[in-house]
Amino acid sequence: MHPTHHRLYPGILLALTLLVSACAGDAEDPYANPQATDAARTDLTEHLSTLPDALREGLEAHGGLDTWRSFPALQFDFNRAGGTETQHIDLSTRRTHWIGDGFTLGFDGDSVWVSPSEDAFFGNPRFYNGLHFYFFQSPFVLADDGAVHEDLGEQMIDGTPYRAVRVTYEQGVGESSEDAYIAHFDPETGLMKVLLYTVTFNSGEPSDRYSALEYRDYQEIDGLLVPSRYVGRVWNAEERTLGEERYEMNFTNVDFHTEPWPDAMFSPPAE
Hints:
- By secondary structure, this protein is an alpha+beta fold.
- The protein has helices spanning 14-24, 34-49, 53-61, 65-69, 125-128, 131-136; strands at residues 73-80, 83-90, 96-100, 103-107, 112-115, 147-157, 160-169, 181-185, 192-197, 211-221, 224-236, 241-257.
């Protein structure tokens, strides 16, 4: 069973909005509006100061939240059920465009659509829409506005110590605001190695039953360290061990874009 969570986070990140607005004023001069750029930097600095040390240092180890937020668009390929699919993401609005085998799926900021019909997709489109993106872009998305962070200190997994941060969400944030995550960072490298997560999309109720993702390999793309492979594992809470391997996800052809995707990409086709 694959992880059954996604977060559609429609709020536009202030820092990125200000930066994009500054660039819009003069396409050849990204610093045409230095006041807006300075405001974005100040906002980001203040935001980072509110995060637990483990998360803040983890973000820096992965390339920096400032670098990640500087890109308006992302695309990547991932494997599912033996095939390869492609997602395009508007990082500021979290709109998506997903090309799969026999279907195209999109989120226009309000509604999720499937072409040529819902029957072409294998499950609940809204449920799966942002699933792989959220896991693929952790820990950056764990610093989203509306996230609530708790420093759990040192936590052991399979006898190995990690710096752990629990992430929950303010009421009404995303599709499943009752979801919870616990990110585990390597104390030496700062890289996120294990992510525990709960599933509340269907029930809408808080849960203390976690599943696990083990991040085994990272790749450097445009100055950012993002997963090339993670493995879904059973989480044995009492023993604090990773159990049976349930599935593996591989990510290729990753590209952060300096220009946003056209709005038309996320709109449903006329038919």
